[in-house]
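Table 4 source record.
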Amino acid sequence: MVDAVSGRGEIRPASTAPRLTFDDLLGPETVEAFVRERLDREPFHVSRADANFFASLFSLGEIEAYLARARPAFSKVFAIDSRREINSLEFSDALGVVDPTRLFQLYDRGCTIVLREIDGHFPALDALCRSAERRLQAPFFANVYYAPPGGQSFPVHYDAPDVYALQVEGTKTWRLYEPGYEKPLADQHCYGQMPEQTLLREVRLEPGDVLYVPRGFPHLVTADDGPSLHISLSAFPPTWAGVLTAAVSELARRDATFRTALPPGWFAPGEDLEKGFAALVRRFADKAALRPALAGVARGLVASRRAWVPDPIARPRQAAGLSLGSELAANCEALVLLERDGDTVRLTGLGKELLFAAEALDDLAFALEATRFRIGDTPGALEAEGKLDLFQTLLLNGFVSAV
């Protein structure tokens, strides 16, 4: 509903419905079909007649609550408008803290309010992003856009990340155009006005709908006749360019040829440098190793992500009371990496890196995926004391939870 005086949406608290996963987001399309046919290829619209589908994630009322509770800086919450550039002093104080009243004054003048990377402040949003990370093995974060009737945040532009637009309240019209520059890298945003584009399709998002826009697809987004609230999940997928960079770095540690200094005069390269570079390219093709490069990219991704760890106060007591009959479950929101290196197993995730003896590998692999299990039933060869010690460590560090 819309307040006829201010034009703002009715404030409703988020529901306590079960948390949505990335699979729920795309349904009835399966994640496997989406990856095979749509991901990094073409836009995809999920239309569902369920206005409350995203009620558990976020609501208009939570904007005001977040502003009062977090007192965010202007870099996290700000106003934007395609018609002009807005100075942060228009909605923040001398310390850079957002002033909610002045922020909503700008909203009433046609500006869109943006809450940037707020998934860590809302458990349901956080769980959805972490679920998406596990499924696509790419980093996700969530922005919220609250637009007035007719609001338009940017002119025609394209984004460097993939975008999943979740329409929560109101409606928005997305005009999608043929990409002129395919698959931009993470630092290749284009927020400025672009030349006239070839229209690909026009999509009207209703509450409950999802629109996937691959990176590089230009688009123009306009709120319709009423206020619009939508969540934008952004993902920067790892690329072959990143793997090749990692492979060069890894090979340079093994091969001194790649560590040779450039000679004076390299500002104006001559034929000798051209030949030397071509020789290095051939040497790289012969000696580069894929698996160490992929492992390095994966380790960097996993180490940078986080997940919500419930009941931190109770965990020490739970760990102390574990027995072989205790039931546990994996933290399915955590993006983890399990690697064996000789006699050691490395577990990376939740901002941590833990080392275990190789004998723990089977128990670890099972526990990190199982939805519910008894410690004594795990398939590894560890003795009872070793199993209890292992699962106490996993429980204390958030990788599993007590059932």
